[in-house]
Design goal:
Layout: E1 14-22, E2 28-32, E3 35-39, E4 47-55, E5 60-69, H1 95-112, E6 120-121, E7 136-144, E8 147-150, E9 152-153, E10 160-161, H2 171-187, E11 201-208, E12 215-221, H3 229-239, E13 243-250, E14 262-268, E15 272-276, E16 279-283, H4 293-307, E17 314-318, H5 324-330, E18 335-340, H6 343-355, E19 361-365, H7 368-377, E20 384-387, H8 396-405, E21 409-414, H9 417-429, E22 432-440, E23 450-457
Parallel strand pairs: 3-5, 6-22, 12-13, 17-18, 17-20, 18-19, 20-21
Antiparallel strand pairs: 1-2, 1-4, 2-3, 4-5, 7-8, 7-11, 9-10, 11-12, 13-14, 15-16, 21-23, 22-23
Helix pairs in contact: 1-9, 2-3, 4-5, 7-8
The structure holds S-adenosyl-L-homocysteine.
């Protein structure tokens, strides 16, 4: 890696750079004399003046001073606190350009890292209406000289931006926040101070079932109760009759982790219900559930299509979380085995299979790279394997076993195009052919790139 010279790091100097890419966090990427620089608020193709604000051994961070040559894709951000809030990184890019950019990112990674020049990458499937798409929000609560703030953290800081409206949340999430804030002000509720560890209310989480319209409000408190919580419950129900569950979540630890382990239900049910496709899910405060349910359905339908099932197959769903993809696959498979490392998620997966009356799935706790070699050694094989790993991609031990096992198809769901491309290179060098890639936009206005790929075992007799 090229080491920086002192000259590059002078904080007084203005540098002119070309922006050539975007990171998954939506930061622009450019170079000064071959050294990588990340800059917020810029777009590929732009020429900008920046000042250096931070330096490390391997990269620098620049602050935008002036756009000299602006991209045709640049648009005015719709959010008034866009400059400060750390939520959406690419609101200054038109939605169509985001979709094109995400497709191109997948394509370039597969070509450069995967070494596959002729693979078919479809256009990104975007949202018809890329607003109000999140079914979960977690607002930090803070107080600044007596002024209560409930909103979002500023980029790379714990300052809270209290905006009136966040357009990627449903209206209820915005409005519930306003009611809680007014209540805290009127009733003098003690707000948690992360520096001193004193005060009560830390976070407000709102979850909404998009198909059922059921709403859950979670009040995260530094203690076992919240003063005047009965009155707050009444006030929330008065304004939002669709609330089905209000929970006090106890978190007395001095930590950045939002939720504690203990939940006290102070109104209604302990969970809300929602559907993905025809499958029903019970969602508790601590449950994992995909945050964009509309695009999740699109992604899972594609997984089912790429799995090409006829009803006779044994399918592995690896990194299965709460078993959502497994349930989708169960519709057309003989048997599905879901594997996931988090034991609580597997409990949820089993429960989800049960409440949906699905009996041709089983779930195993453990690392896919341990469980699958063991199953294979016992003679258990899959005809189709679906993997949906975290950002670091699949473990090499797992890939080795898949190469030996020779399933007819592998469907790879990826949130990181570079590890996807790395794993794809290995699999295509060891007997599989990459057929098609489909990027799906799960998080509009962010740099996040999700894609799904279909691989087929090469028939050696052909
Ligand atoms: N397929 C699920 C979740 C995908 S997220 C869905 O669509 O909702 C990736 C999942 O992989 C997480 O649930 C994480 O806990 C799990 N995981 C991470 N490392 C793992 C490993 N080595 N083996 C099995 N699961 C793992």
């Amino acid at each position: 890696m090229k080491q920086p010279s002192q000259k590059i790091f002078s904080q007084n100097k203005t540098f002119n750079i070309d922006i050539t890419g975007l990171t998954h966090e939506g930061q622009g990427v450019g170079k000064i004399e071959g050294f990588v620089v990340f800059v917020d608020g810029v777009l590929p193709g732009e020429n900008v003046d920046i000042k250096i604000v931070k330096q490390t051994k391997s990269y620098a961070v620049g602050r935008l001073v002036n756009i000299k040559n602006s991209s045709a894709d640049r648009v005015k951000p719709f959010c008034p606190v866009y400059d400060k809030c750390g939520g959406c990184a690419v609101q200054h890019m038109s939605y169509q350009a985001q979709l094109d950019f995400k497709k191109d990112t997948v394509l370039q990674n597969i070509r450069r890292i995967g070494g596959l020049q002729n693979i078919k990458v479809n256009n990104t499937i975007g949202m018809e209406n890329p607003f109000k798409y999140r079914n979960k929000v977690q607002y930090p609560v803070g107080s600044d000289k007596g002024d209560i703030r409930i909103g979002f953290y500023e980029t790379r800081s714990h300052n809270i931006i209290d905006s009136n409206l966040c357009d990627i949340q449903p209206d209820e999430s915005n409005n519930i926040r306003d009611v809680v804030r007014d209540f805290c002000k009127d009733e003098g509720i003690a707000i948690y101070d992360e520096k001193t560890g004193k005060g009560l209310l830390r976070h407000v989480m709102v979850r909404k079932g998009f198909k059922t319209e059921e709403i859950m409000v979670v009040l995260v408190v530094n203690g076992n109760k919240l003063a005047k919580s009965d009155e707050l419950v009444n006030k929330l129900l008065e304004y939002f009759p669709d609330i089905k569950s209000i929970i006090l979540n106890v978190n007395t630890r001095n930590t950045n982790i939002i939720l504690g382990d203990k939940n006290i239900c102070i109104y209604g049910q302990k969970y809300i219900t929602d559907y993905i496709g025809s499958f029903k899910f019970e969602i508790s405060p601590l449950s994992f559930f995909q945050v964009n349910p509309i695009q999740t359905e699109v992604l899972y339908e594609k997984a089912l299509e790429y799995a090409g099932l006829s009803g006779n197959e044994t399918v592995f769903d690896l990194y299965c979380g709460i078993g959502t993809i497994s349930l989708f696959l169960s519709q057309k498979a003989k048997h599905v085995v879901g594997v996931e490392v988090v034991a609580d998620a597997i409990c949820d997966a089993k429960r989800n299979a049960e409440i949906n009356g699905v009996s041709n799935v089983e779930f195993l706790v453990g690392e896919a790279e341990k469980v699958i070699p063991e199953l294979y050694a016992q003679g258990v094989k899959a005809d189709v394997v679906v993997v949906d790993p975290p950002r670091k991609g699949c473990d090499q031990l797992l890939l080795n076993t898949l190469v030996e096992m020779q399933p007819q198809r592998i469907v790879y769901v990826s949130c990181n195009p570079s590890t996807l491309a790395r794993d794809l290179k290995y699999l295509t060098e060891h007997g599989f052919e990459a057929k098609e890639v489909q990027p799906v936009d799960m998080f509009p206005w962010t740099g996040h790139v999700e894609s799904i790929i279909w691989m087929q075992l090469v028939d050696k007799n052909k």
